[in-house]
Amino acid sequence: MLAPADKKLAVSGLKAYYMTEAGPVKAVDGVDLELAPNESLGIVGESACGKSSLGAALMRSLQAPGKIVEGSVVLAGQDVSKLSNSEFNRQVRWKKIAMVFQGAMNALDPVYTVESQLRELLKEHGFEGDLHDKIAKSLEQVDLDPSVASRYPHELSGGMKQRVVIAMALLLEPDLLIADEPTTALDVLVQSQIIKLLKKLQEEKGITVILISHDLGLVSQLASKIAIMYGGQLIEVGSTQDIYKNPKHPYTQALIAAVPRLRSDSKKIHFIPGSPPNLLNAPEGCRFYDRCPYAMDVCKKTPPEFKTETGYVRCWLYDPKGKE
After folding, report:
1. CA-to-CA dists, residue 222 to 43, 165, 173, 233, angstroms
2. What phi and psi, each to the nearest 5 degrees, are found at residue 209?
3. In what order do the strands lie in the sheet with 78-79?
4. Terminal CA-to-CA distance of the chain, rounded, Å?
5. Is this prediction's pTM over 0.85?
């Protein structure tokens, strides 16, 4: 538990639901999270586990019918969850918290040059300096030649477009950067370059980074802390080393076991049987109950939640009273 002065980000009881005719889909259901300045967090989980919705909720960019139901988000000591949408847009979005959205091409307008789109963001937030110089420097910091500013998105490679989106996110020098699947659809070489770029920017700029991904190997290259997400909840949080070397939750153990190993003698492919829970009718107890090899009666009815010596885990296997 970090002291208040040591927290760059503190999320408490965050819930973000998609309101459908059949009822609320609990995409983010009671997330608690703390990050220190300059710390890097990887959020990992299967598709539809809620990790992208968590990033969008922090950025207040949930698509309709999504909405934040409750919870608080404190960024650098300011409770931004109490701000109105207009106040959040003016004071926080892009200035204090920015996001690299999944799919660079979808984040860039195809009919405007890179410079036009960066200029619009700067003008919208009242930047009063030399726009051309600011844009040139922002492109250079992501290892792009300033001449890229005059190009249209379709004239750029996938890796270049992703770098432009990162430059856009860092344009107003935010404290927190959320990168949602920033290497999707990129080849392995470019993936490595993008992760190295994010790591360099984190070290040079001192920003706090949240990397959202389904790729445990990719996350390990950047993150100092990892949060495993399942069924709209964080089920295990710990240092990268602890998560990889000593995973506690059965789901985390299964995820790591499913990663192919080039040097393994075993030819067996490991997978997690069953399907993720329906978040329209979320299970009453542990959301991994139906797929867990260690499931007990208590797991079905009562939600688990325990602090450990090295982090946090939602699993009745780590109930302190059960060991007495």
Report:
1. 11, 19, 20, 22
2. -120, 135
3. 23-35, 9-20, 66-75, 78-79
4. 25
5. yes
Determine which helix (DSSP H) or strand (DSSP E) holds 216, and give its type and residue range. helix 216-220
Kindly state the helix (H) or strand (E) to which residue 240 belongs, with its residue range.
helix 240-245
Strand locations in 116-265 (E)? 176-180, 208-213, 225-230, 233-239
Classify residue 111 by burial, with Cβ atoms within 10 Å: 0-12, 13-18, 19+. Answer: exposed
User: 43 - beta bridge partners?
Assistant: 212, 227
Neighbours of 85 (CB within 10 A): 9
Reported as a single tens digit per residue, the pLDDT across 79-133 is: 999 999 999 999 999 999 999 987 766 789 999 999 999 999 999 888 888 999 9
Q: What CA–CA distance (Å, rounded) separates 14 from 96?
A: 19
Residue 126, class by beta-carbon neighbours within 10 Å (0-12 exposed, 13-18 middle, 19+ buried)? Answer: exposed
Q: Which of 164, 185, 221, 265 is CA-nearest to residue 42?
A: 221
CB contact at 8 A, 256 and 216: yes
| Whether the predicted pLDDT of 309 surpasses 50 | yes
DSSP string, 105-136: HHHS-TTS-HHHHHHHHHHHTT--S-HHHHHH
Residue 89 · residue 218 · CB < 8 Å: no
> In the beta sheet, which residues pair with residue 209?
40, 177
Count CA atoms within 13 Å of residue 162 on its CB side: 22
Q: Which residues lie across from 41 on neighbouring strands?
A: 210, 225
Count of C-beta atoms within a 10 Å radius of residue 157: 10
Q: Is the pLDDT of residue 235 over 60?
A: yes
Average pLDDT over residues 126-146: 93
State mean pLDDT over 204-215.
Answer: 90
Q: Which domains does the chain have, with CATH numbers?
A: 4-96+174-323 (3.40.50.300)
- Answer for the pair 230, 237: CB distance below 8 angstroms, yes or no: no
